[in-house]
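Crash report, auto-generated. Payload:
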Amino acid sequence: MQASTHTSPPAPTRETRRNVRRFARRNRLQIGIIGVLVLLWLFFLALAPETFGQRSIYGAFMQSVPFFGIVAMPLTMLVIARDMDLSFPAVMAFSVTVFVLLYQSTQNVVLAFVACMATGFVLGLLNGLLVVYIGIPSLIATIGTQFFWRGMVNVATNGRAFPLTELRGTPFRELMVGRVFDFIPMQMFWMLVAAVIIWFLLNRHQFGAHIYLIGDNENSARLMGVRVRRTRCLMFAVVGLFAAFAGLLTSLEINNFFTNLGEGYLLIGLAAVFLGGTSVFGGVGTVLGTFVACFIIASIQPAVVAIGWSGFTTQVIYGFIIIVSVSMHAILRRRMI
Amino acid sequence: MEQPYRLELRNVSKSFGEVQSLRNVDLRVGMNEVVGLLGDNGAGKSTLIKIITGYHQPDSGEIIFAGQKVDNLTVAKARALGVETVYQERALADQQTLWRNIFMGREITGRFGFLNTKQIRAETERLMRGELGFTSSAVSASSEIVGFSGGEKQGVAIVRALYFQAELIILDEPTMGLALSETRKLLNFVRDIKRAGKSAIFIDHNVFHVFDVADRIVLLDRGAVAGEFRKDELTLDQLLEKMHHVAETGSLD
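Recovered output after restart:
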């Protein structure tokens, strides 16, 4: 084989072919999910051309997907490390409550924004501390904090909604959820930024390297000196931070803060993570997978309606997708070990 | 003047709840010495190792590296002092790539903790072709180690220990699950440690392997040191006899 690279001309193509194969094997999950997206899109385009042939539906996707997509990406990190956060919708709502109350009393939007982000970070960190230092499994701990912070939102606001119409036309709102060229919503830009940040953290930073190791084999990671507790705590804090940001985007977009903010995002956010190829068993998952899966999840409902099926079908399809993707992982994993 | 030991444990004890794993253990490893650690299951070998590597903290006693007493030893501190370990459980992450495994817990980073993936990959590639002896072009620094054989995985764990310029290498049951030829390679590797002027603690359930490569043998029984011998003081048969005696009576005499 080695000698042939010097003598025979077809060697480079063989080399290329091998590299392509290797690339395909290594990125099979990401290639798979992109393939699913393209196939579904062609399918929808064929069955409902009057909807999927128009640009307005893509504007609608870009407007609404970031609201849960921005949390789904840091959530991917958490799931890779075999943790879970069910409290992010409540963290969204509580962080925005802090924003609203502070903005109303001080009229200082920068202060309110910073406090909102800090709140998200701290609530996330609290999740992490409960999980790591008290030792409650994250699934249970975040059910608790979810109730607690949602309750605190209602206590603080008396269950009342707050209009954010005052912020209309301000540079702050334009920056957060304005439209570029009258078409592309700024939140789509922020979702891309979030994707890039999380991608770098996971793939090019020690933090992400440790997340993969913890998810794969926590004991090995600890034996080799990975600071498991600190990494896990930080991970939860990052999810909280992004949840606060996404919550703020959502409220600004609709010019209103409702106390049930985020309630529809829990399951579709998680569905996107699992559909995107992140394994519940830990150690495996990609940002690209989750990013693409967010759009797949979001396209199902309008597609179902446009094709003329009953809207009730949507949930059936969601359920089917989640069961299939998680089963696929279980089977792949069994084959590996 | 007496040369300090590479590592000295004085009066180390450790309990887990009700169970006392180690009782007043004294252990010395010379500057260029291979110490074989023998003992039955539950004798405390693994606990002792995990204390030396900073994974567990002793309840009492002193840990001294090259004449310097060290308090609150952590995994990171132990490493900085030149301790590297090949764990019985191998401490690998199966679904991760070779480079992530080799540099586990101490990735080469630049500013702000960003990985220097280029250097990490290049180093991994070099170790693979050199020390690990992987020649197949199907394996690269980005291969997941899940398909590797037991020997290859052990090789990864050993190369990882070597790469970081260890002064004291601890091998915890390294021959477990290895084929014969792989075992021979491993024993040669322990001899290389000695030749390179470094030290090692070698733990194995197989007395023959330990007797083969160790300069000195320490017998551990029920959490305490039951005896210590220089290899030139006794024959393999005598050692086996003593081990049986210790196992039955709990003491040497």
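Post-recovery validation: Residues 1-82+166-253 of chain B form a domain with the Rossmann fold fold (CATH 3.40.50.300).
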